[in-house]
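User: Teach me something about this protein's shape.
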Amino acid sequence: MPTLTERKTARPARPAPELIFGDLWEFDPSPETADPKLKSRYDLFIGGKFVAPASGKYFDSINPANEQKLAELALGNAADVDAAYQAAAGAFETVWGRMPGKERGKYLFRIARLLQDRAREFAVAETMDNGKPIRETRDFDVPMAAAHFFYHGGWADKLEYVAPGRRLAPLGV
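Assistant: First, the predicted structure itself:
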C-alpha cells in the first residue's frame, strides 16, 4: 500500500482552479445596500391621516455619513400635540376603549408583523438618519420594536386571567 507521501507525488500537480463568482454570490446582497425609498417630505399622522403641522414648519433630516438631506420632517408644536390628543381621545371613547382586548391585540400583532415585513427598510432608514451601524438597527432596534408590539398584543387577551372576576379596561389616552 502506498504511503501518503507516495500518493501525493503520484498525481501530477494541478493548479487550483480559480474561483470566479462574478456577481453570482455578492456578499450580503440584501436591501441594506438599496435606497429605502424615502419620500421628500413627511407630515404628522393625526386622526388616521397625514396632516401638515399647524406651524407649517419642517426640519431637515440629514444623513450624518455624507451630510445629504434625507427628507423634510414635520415640526410639531403644542397645537399639534393637542390635535393628536383630541383625536386619540375620540378614538378611545368611540372605538378603542370599547373594543375587547383580543381585538386590540390583533391590531398590535398587525403592527408587529408590518415592522417585520419591512424590517430591512426601517433599519436602512434608521441607519441613514442617525448614523448607527446597520448591524445595530437591523439586528436589534427594529426587531425589538416588533417584539414590544408582539409582547403587548399577547397580553391584551390575557388580562382577564390576571384579575379573575374583575373587568379590566384600558385607562385612556
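Now, about its shape. Residues 63 and 129 are 5 Å apart (CA to CA). The beta strands are 41-42, 44-46, 49-51, 58-62, 69-74. If you'd like, I can walk through any region in more detail.
User: That's plenty for now, thanks!
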